[in-house]
Amino acid sequence: MQMRALVTGASAGLGAEFARQLAADGFALVLVARSADRLRELAAELPALGAADVEVLPADLTDEAGLERVAARLQDAARPVDVLVNNAGHAVAEPFHASAIADERAMHELLTWVPLRLAHAALPGMRERGRGGILNVASLAGRLPSGSYAAAKAQVIALSHALDARYRRDGVTVTALLPGFVATEFHERMGVAADTVPRAGWADAPTVVREGLAALRRRRGVVVSDWRYRLAAPLLPLVPSRLIAGFGLGARIERGSGR
Ligand SMILES: NC(=O)c1ccc[n+]([C@@H]2O[C@H](COP(=O)([O-])OP(=O)(O)OC[C@H]3O[C@@H](n4cnc5c(N)ncnc54)[C@H](OP(=O)(O)O)[C@@H]3O)[C@@H](O)[C@H]2O)c1
């Protein structure tokens, strides 16, 4: 049976890697991001990897009309989507006291409202078919008291838990993927130099994506990726919040700048 996945933020970083690995698994794909040209380039690459069919769906997910176009695609029963990867994301570079509120709102919407809206669109069909998976790309930062990005990621972890607990019995798995630092365009887009984080701290996108997809297949509710962050994760609750905030440790987890 032909399986289909929709990946948001597929034009770069983790999203492009999700598309490649899902293509290699034989999935048909729907690629979503703002950069139509980059999506088309990726789409041209995917059939050779194994994708049966590739749709390009350019959309700004922080724009109501763009988001609703993607929601409508997820609700199209004639071309069902079996796996939704809620991956698109960015972070506000400035600390909370100095950021523009419009930037905070755009980030908050992209990281929390968009995954909720798209899960809401995808779930009824998955439930009806008795199978489906939603992979929400959160962050290990969501377990730290480190700014509004971390708070938004905490929210998507909570949403994943809540939906997984409720819909698992209907055959739908909702998995939260919690990476630490990953080498993508994420930090560059924020204007943060890669060398702010020691080389040994960077996970690579193929590993993080492989572990995320394996967790979804095994119907796990949450996965921390990669191994170095799995080792660190149990220690995080032992670090006092003041220390994390005061020394910019939490901020470094995503911003790599310690500002
Ligand atoms: N890299 C890390 O260290 C790290 C760590 C933990 C979690 N994460 C999370 O991983 C996810 C993927 O990030 P990444 O590291 O792969 O970053 P990336 O390389 O910067 O890719 C971000 C993707 O999101 C898309 N995007 C951004 N704003 C969008 C919008 N308004 N509408 C639609 N698409 C949008 C971008 O495409 P366009 O610009 O073409 O729209 C791009 O495809 C994010 O949720 C991020 O928070 C990253």
TrEMBL record:
<keyword id="KW-0560">Oxidoreductase</keyword>
<protein>
    <submittedName>
        <fullName>SDR family NAD(P)-dependent oxidoreductase</fullName>
    </submittedName>
</protein>
<dbReference type="GO" id="GO:0016491">
    <property type="term" value="F:oxidoreductase activity"/>
</dbReference>
<dbReference type="GO" id="GO:0016020">
    <property type="term" value="C:membrane"/>
</dbReference>
<comment type="similarity">
    <text>Belongs to the short-chain dehydrogenases/reductases (SDR) family.</text>
</comment>
<dbReference type="InterPro" id="IPR002347">
    <property type="entry name" value="SDR_fam"/>
</dbReference>
<dbReference type="Pfam" id="PF00106">
    <property type="entry name" value="adh_short"/>
</dbReference>
<dbReference type="InterPro" id="IPR036291">
    <property type="entry name" value="NAD(P)-bd_dom_sf"/>
</dbReference>
